[in-house]
Amino acid sequence: MQKFTQMVAVAAPMDMSNIDTDQIIPKQFLLAVDRKGFGKHLFHGWRYLDAAETQPNPDFVLNRADYKDAAFIVARDNFGNGSSREHAPWALLDYGIRAVIASSFADIFYNNSLRNGLLLVKLTPEEIEEIFEWLGANPGGKIDVNLETDTVTVGEKCYHFTLDEFRRHCILEGLDAIDLTLKHEEDIARFEAARPSWMDSGLK
């Protein structure tokens, strides 16, 4: 899992609520179980005018020149609602989105995202409104998301957010569930070495 400590990057405004996981990565692209390759289908129904993905929609924010290098998305309430598909954070990360800033997130999407290293920043609706206003006045503007200080800096304003300490540690260090297990590899090896042989008889 890629670490996230601090990043200054373009933030793409998606000024809407209830952006669901089927909009993030439609069901027809869920056949693969590898995490790579989903970015090209991110927001398929909004990014393209055709099913073959050959005609980009010029009105969609990520297709605009100002936002082609966006690493952050700013949205409103209930981002990631809908089905529980883990492919949604996979698609966002594979595209290059490192953080989503919104006033609320769907619970399952929230857990899936943090487990995969996609930082989710929850701010108040009033703070989100201020950020949209700044982005509207500064198309393609860059903002600073800093997990070490738990802050988002937009123009001259600094907003504070919170994240539970365990998830914060995992994202700062780039530790997924496998990495966390491997940190105890020596303890696991000692346990297995001391395990009575008769306990393994049923596994042969």
Query: What's the CATH topology label?
Result: Aconitase, domain 4
- Output the strand order for the largest sheet: 4-3-2-1-5-6-7
Biggest beta sheet summary: 7 strands, mixed
Mean pLDDT: 91
List the helices and strands and how they pair.
Layout lengths: L5 E8 L7 H4 L19 H4 L24 E3 L12 H9 L3 E4 L4 H10 L2 E4 L2 H13 L4 E5 L4 E4 L2 E4 L4 H9 L3 H6 L2 H10 L10
Parallel strand pairs: 1-2, 2-3, 3-4
Antiparallel strand pairs: 1-5, 5-6, 6-7
Explain this structure:
- The mean pLDDT is 91.
- This protein is α/β, with parallel strands linked by helices and 204 residues long.
- A hairpin with a 4-residue loop joins β5 and β6 (151-154).
- The radius of gyration is 20 Å and the shape is globular.
- It has helices at residues 21-24, 44-47, 87-95, 107-116, 125-137, 165-173, 177-182, 185-194; strands at 6-13, 72-74, 99-102, 119-122, 142-146, 151-154, 157-160.
- The protein contains eight helices and seven strands; from the N terminus they run βααβαβαβαβββααα.
- It has a single domain (6-179), classed as Aconitase, domain 4.
- It is 32% helix and 16% strand.
- The chain has a seven-stranded mixed beta sheet.
Task: Please summarize what this structure is.
The protein has a 7-stranded mixed beta sheet.
